[in-house]
UniProtKB/TrEMBL annotation:
Annotated Septin-type G domain residues: 1-34
Descriptive protein name: Septin-5-like
Transmembrane segments: none
One Pfam family from the record: Septin
Source domain of life: Eukaryota
A GO molecular function held by the record: GTP binding
Organism this protein belongs to: Carassius auratus (Goldfish)
């Protein structure tokens, strides 16, 4: 009876170990195959830097002007606060 239960446990453990080893090997083969396929088929494309178009340049100039106006307004407010404190 004792030998039978130990033999059954040994079979179960052996089956589990073999299955886990097989599963790990299959996963490793799939991932290595996928990584090899990705390297060959689709390398990372290098996009050239685009030159800004006229609309983008116009938008940048508008934002710069807005920033300059906001800074001037901030300076005026700080002067007014300073004058009020005196």
């Amino acid at each position: 009876m004792l030998i039978r239960s130990h033999m059954h446990d040994l079979k179960d453990i052996t089956c589990d170990v073999h299955y886990e080893n097989y599963r790990a090997q299959c996963i490793q083969q799939m991932t290595s195959k996928l990584s090899q396929d990705n390297r060959v088929e689709s390398p990372i494309p290098i996009l050239p830097l685009s030159t800004p178009d006229a609309e983008t340049e116009k938008l940048i100039k508008m934002k710069d002007e807005e920033l300059r106006r906001m800074q001037e307004m901030l300076q005026k407010m700080q002067q007014q606060m300073h004058e009020q404190d005196l």
